[in-house]
Target: Protochlorophyllide reductase
Amino acid sequence: MGVYGTSKLYNIMFAQELDNRVGADGVRSFAVHPGSAKSDLVTKIEPGMYNFLGKFVRLISQSTDNGAISSLYAATSDEVLATGASKLYGPNWFNMGNTAAREIGNKDVTPANNKILWEKTKEIVGV
Model:
């Protein structure tokens, strides 16, 4: 797994550990995947790469408004409040579509590993 994929995996693990720590206090943490949205982010890559990748990504992407739906759903849904970070919320088709709950299928996402990541993060930021 590359750096990008690892960073996304760590986001999920951190969300789960945070949810584990504060969920009993009525605060929920969850992981959200907005999908691929037609934002200006893709224009920030190298021009040659944008010509190749950027135009393709825009063809298979949803609007930025639709890209925000996963986050809005997660912030307001009773389903998400009930399950917290045990699922990943995002588009139900490829990188666009209605928001759906997905199982987190990575074998490295475990309570023990989430705690290790939490402690390492505290060490790095000096908390």
